[in-house]
Amino acid sequence: MNSRLILNSLKKGSNISKFLATNNVTKVVSYKANFLSSLSYSPKCLNLTGPAITRNQQSSIHLSNVFLNEIITIESPVFAESISEGNFVYVKQVGESVKAGEIIANIETDKTILELKAPQDGVIEEYLVEDNSSIKGKSPAIKFKVGAVSGQSAANAEPVSKPVEEKKPEERKEPTQEPTQTPIPTSMPEIPPKPQQPISSVPISQIPVVPFTPSTTQQADINKISGSRSETRIKMNRMRQTIANRLKTAQNTCAMLTTFNEINMGNLVDLRKTYNDQFQKRHKLKLGFMSAFVKASATALMDQPVVNAVIENNEIVYRDYVDISVAVATPKGLVVPVLRNVEKMNYADIEKEIAALGEKARNNSLAIEDMQGGTFTISNGGVFGSLFGTPIINLPQSAILGMHGIFDRPVAINGQVVIRPMMYVALTYDHRLIDGREAVTFLRKIKSAVEDPRTLLLDI
């Protein structure tokens, strides 16, 4: 089959689906780009929308610029304006077969991890960027062979069974090559000499056993201390470097001061026990403590707008919206996705948004837009059992609330010493902008809204 035969068949108005069915399609595809480049006709001359092809036949025909065994270049995605470059990390090795949608490499940026996925089934031909090196947006990263299979995968794959054709006995041909004949020996082989002494006269019990020593080239387990007195150095990922720089910048920039209070969690615990089943049945998720603190913080921010403000170039910027960042711990580091317009949300809306952002964080699918902005941050160290702590401000914000664990403690209520579930809370604020009166009033407002959620309904 040649290109002239294909064109003549198509120009005569023949049905293209019938043409492809009656001819060997693999031969047509094997011409690849060289075949199409040899044609002097435009794609319009194929007349795919003509009356010879029905709608169902059109949907079953796919014309693409990517052919089997064609090598394409995968580029890094376009980064956000606040990100200049990322750290390129290999996930698959060169020569390894991957399927469409499978992750080939990761790009660790300052705020998130971007995934480079295989566009189609194929083999990784070459990495154009070194492992753990920097890469900018829209840069060539990987050479990828479409539709190919690596040698290892091909060896492991099961052979495709072909139909066995019956052959007549007379068609079988005898091998033309005569088998080589070995010469007949004329003498007996020589008998080896008898050893004069045993091969080894040392008993097995006296042979020293050499202990096994692991190779020094093996990578040590950094999550386990075995007492070998060795040291392992690994490069900090870009996200961890950014977190370290931002925390140190916050300490050097802000005049940070922390005020504390304690909250009686008894009423909120009883509220969860009473309405958790109904809440879960209606909204398909559990009622947690975070929604109460997020809503209480939004109410306190509207009561004390200076805590929601920020200093920029010797100016104070007041925001008429409340976007609260919620700190989430991930294996790669701490991320702070943002809840938008919390002042308009109720408990159910907050729980749904937190659940959606938490799922993204666990799947490493948080986008840059999910973590940009924010006017206030809540850090919940209580999930790890923290009793007390002083959080660090998340720049460019002006304050951060630190939640801690709930523990039963003796407290004085109405002159009586009783045991109640108590939580310490801490508010770290920028004293350049926020005075002590506003900070203490803000924290007491949160305490009141959490201890008695009815105050939110009454707006008091």
Key structural traits:
elongated; disordered N terminus; alpha+beta; 460 residues; six-stranded mixed beta sheet
Fold and architecture overview:
This protein is of the alpha+beta class and 460 residues long. The chain contains 13 helices and 18 strands. It has a 6-stranded mixed β-sheet with strand order 9-18-17-16-12-15. A 4-stranded antiparallel β-sheet has the order 1-8-6-3, with no helix packed on it. A 4-stranded antiparallel β-sheet has the order 5-4-2-7, with no helix packed on it. Strand 4 (103-108) and strand 5 form a beta hairpin. The chain is elongated and about 120 Å long. Mean pLDDT is 78; it is low at 1-7, 9-65, 159-164 and 212-217.
What is the gist of this entry?
By secondary structure, the protein is of the alpha+beta class.
Biggest sheet, spatial arrangement of strands: 9-18-17-16-12-15
Taking the sheet with the most strands, its summary is: 6 strands, mixed
How much helical structure, as a percent, in the residues?
25-40%
- How confident is the prediction overall: mean pLDDT? 78
State the total count of DSSP E strands.
Answer: 18
Give the CA-CA distance, first to last residue.
Answer: 85 Å
Topology diagram in text:
Elements: H1 3-11, H2 16-22, H3 25-30, H4 32-37, H5 55-59, E1 71-75, E2 85-90, E3 97-98, E4 103-108, E5 113-117, E6 122-127, E7 133-136, E8 140-146, H6 151-156, H7 238-253, E9 256-264, H8 266-283, H9 290-303, E10 310-312, E11 315-317, E12 324-326, E13 328-330, E14 333-335, E15 338-339, H10 347-362, H11 368-371, E16 376-380, E17 399-413, E18 416-430, H12 436-451, H13 454-458
Parallel strand pairs: 12-16, 16-17
Antiparallel strand pairs: 1-8, 2-4, 2-7, 3-6, 4-5, 6-8, 9-18, 10-11, 12-15, 13-14, 17-18
